[in-house]
Automatic annotation (TrEMBL):
One of its GO terms (molecular function) is transcription cis-regulatory region binding. Keywords: DNA-binding. It comes from Gordonia sihwensis NBRC 108236. InterPro entries: Homeodomain-like_sf, HTH-type_TetR-like_transc_reg, HTH_TetR. Residues 13-72 form the HTH tetR-type domain. PANTHER family: HTH-TYPE TRANSCRIPTIONAL REGULATOR RUTR, HTH-TYPE TRANSCRIPTIONAL REPRESSOR BDCR. This is Putative TetR family transcriptional regulator. The lineage of its organism: Bacteria, Bacillati, Actinomycetota, Actinomycetes, Mycobacteriales.
Length: 189
């Protein structure tokens, strides 16, 4: 999009969605550390105009993460909906989340050696991501939030340092992560 003319007369949420779409393209090429100037240039507006829609880079990054998390959450929910076994459902939820993040060029660029710290910190500070993870675990309260944050940490770790092959990764999740999380959530339920 060239020039900020397209923003005039467009409702704020639609402009924010368009900015996030374009920010995703910038993140795919420049990683999580793309500047507001980089994004404003791609959007075709000034940095000042961009700041009217997002208070700062961190807010824009969080909005982008949450936007993509909604999409990934829907894919995970659809994929595991027919699985009756909690262990199978949890393992598959983590595997699908990893696959979907890696499939997204913008998010994949975040989990390079240079960007993993920023991406991990943003993922762990997103209340929305914690809410999604808590819902998949089927727990509530502080304990559910604690378990959800731990699962997000595991996902971030595997994104930053993959386990070698998808089969090996699935086996590690099924052996170490799933029993620990389910054991924790069952004793708290």
């Amino acid at each position: 999009m060239r020039g900020a003319d397209w923003m005039r007369g467009t409702r704020r949420p639609a402009v924010q969605d368009a900015i996030l779409e374009i920010a995703g393209e910038v993140f795919a090429t420049k990683g999580a550390n793309a500047s507001m100037g980089d994004i404003a240039a791609a959007v075709g507006c000034s940095r000042a105009t961009l700041y009217r829609y997002f208070d700062g880079r961190r807010q824009l990054q969080l909005a982008y993460i949450e936007r993509v998390a909604r999409r990934i959450g829907a894919v995970v929910a659809e994929t595991v909906s027919g699985r009756p076994e909690p262990a199978d459902r949890l393992t598959e939820s983590i595997v699908v989340a990893l696959t979907e993040v890696r499939r997204d060029p913008a998010l994949a660029a975040w989990f390079t050696a240079a960007g993993a710290g920023v991406a991990g910190e943003l993922a762990l500070s997103s209340e929305f991501i914690e809410t999604v993870a808590t819902a998949f675990l089927g727990t509530g309260g502080e304990e559910g939030g604690e378990a959800a944050r731990w699962v997000v940490r595991v996902i971030v770790s595997l994104l930053a340092v993959p386990e070698g092959s998808p089969e090996r990764e699935r086996a590690v999740i099924a052996r170490f992560v799933t029993p620990t999380v389910l054991g924790f959530t069952e004793t708290r339920s």
